[in-house]
Amino acid sequence: GLTIIAEFQPTSLILSALQDLPSGLWPCRSKMEKHLQVISVMQWVISFLALGVACTALLIYIFCTDCWLIAAIYIAWLIFDWNTPKQGGRRSSWVRNWTVWTYFRDYFPIRLIKTHDLLPSRNYIFGYHPHGIFCFGGFCNFGTEATGFSKKFPGIKPSLATLAGNFRFPILRDYLMSGGICPVNRNSIDYLLSQNGTGNAVIIVVGGAAESLHCTPGLNSVTLKNRKGFVRLALRKGADLVPVYSFGENDAYKQVIFDEGTVWRSLQKKLQKILGFAPCLFFGSSWGIVPFSNPITTIVGEPITVPKIEDASEETVNLYHAMYIKSLQCLFDKYKTRFGLKESDVLHIH
């Protein structure tokens, strides 16, 4: 797995070397660091948006040249390795600790706040809110070690769940797996919570694609009222539920939000059903795609102890779902004034 993603290491080495240069060689050190931060963020954004498609096109091209054997061998290996993302993946502490992620973290900056200890003898499902456009806080905190997750929660192994379709693309799948990222489907999560021992934390962005269509700066809104699948899963596996809220996640981009009933809104929803994600019309600070450097602070709340019930009744599911909503609401209300919001700001749950 590491050989496949080795092409990303030069970036990390360059950033590390530049960081170690004496300050006298950097007349504009702060400006240089800002440029490195932008490069770090754009590396991830472009990789997420285009790496899979670009590598697929490259593989097809190589297959049509004299080097077709290389492409054929890789495709054979890809078929052999197809189920790995659903079986715990192939995380790499080396990749998770790349220097590039510290620059990524410092661009916004992104912080991870721990409120309670988590027991390595238990498994957990983190509900992450809100989705935002690119879920920067979720990726930085749980897909890398830039904010020190493993030091803050010793014995807990995080697995950020994302669209299963991303793992069908060559190279991109390995890049994602190296960060401990897994497909958000039943097989993958079942494996992590039942066949991978204890101390596992699966992070699910509960609002998903639908929530991203509503994100805009200053709006504190989550799609949760009818999202109960993650609660059923927690009950079936006896995994404790942990509410997580990222203040500032919605402030990374501005988005053009189309009114319900308009042609553009209908088109977004249709594409969402076909593609699995919502195509948003968003823009950032420069070139349209660079996000605004607004702080993102992720608060990991108190775990809700969940019993193991193989076939939970609807009443039981509703009970724990209500407990989760109340816990998330309390988490938001407790910390909102510390991170730029007013006492009068409320969390809208749809």
From TrEMBL:
Q: Which residues cross the membrane?
A: 41-62, 68-84
Sorted keywords for this record are: Acyltransferase, Cytoplasm, Endoplasmic reticulum, Glycerol metabolism, Lipid biosynthesis, Lipid droplet, Lipid metabolism, Membrane, Transferase, Transmembrane, Transmembrane helix
Q: In which pathway does it act?
A: Glycerolipid metabolism; triacylglycerol biosynthesis; Lipid metabolism
EC no.?
2.3.1.-
> Which Pfam families does UniProt cross-reference here?
DAGAT
GO terms for biological process, alphabetical: glycerol metabolic process; triglyceride biosynthetic process
Q: Which InterPro entries match?
A: DAGAT (IPR007130)
- Does the record bear DNA-binding in its keywords? no
Return the CDD domains for the record.
Answer: LPLAT_MGAT-like (cd07987)
**If you read the UniProt record, what top EC class would you report for this enzyme, in one word?**
transferase
Q: Where in the cell is it found?
A: Cytoplasm, Perinuclear region; Endoplasmic reticulum membrane; Lipid droplet
Catalytic activity of the protein: 1,3-di-(9Z-octadecenoyl)-glycerol + (9Z)-octadecenoyl-CoA = 1,2,3-tri-(9Z-octadecenoyl)-glycerol + CoA; 1-(9Z-octadecenoyl)-glycerol + (9Z)-octadecenoyl-CoA = 1,2-di-(9Z-octadecenoyl)-glycerol + CoA; 2-(9Z-octadecenoyl)-glycerol + hexadecanoyl-CoA = 1-hexadecanoyl-2-(9Z-octadecenoyl)-sn-glycerol + CoA; an acyl-CoA + a 1,2-diacyl-sn-glycerol = a triacyl-sn-glycerol + CoA
What is the topology of this protein in the membrane according to its UniProt annotation?
Multi-pass membrane protein
Q: Which GO CC terms are listed, alphabetically?
A: endoplasmic reticulum membrane; lipid droplet; perinuclear region of cytoplasm
User: Which molecular-function annotations from GO does this UniProt entry contain?
Assistant: diacylglycerol O-acyltransferase activity; retinol O-fatty-acyltransferase activity
Top-level taxonomic group: Eukaryota
Supply the PANTHER family for this chain. DIACYLGLYCEROL O-ACYLTRANSFERASE, DIACYLGLYCEROL O-ACYLTRANSFERASE 2
Report the sequence similarity comment from the record.
Belongs to the diacylglycerol acyltransferase family.
Protein name, entry field: Acyltransferase
Protein's organism: Oreochromis niloticus
Name of the coding gene? DGAT2
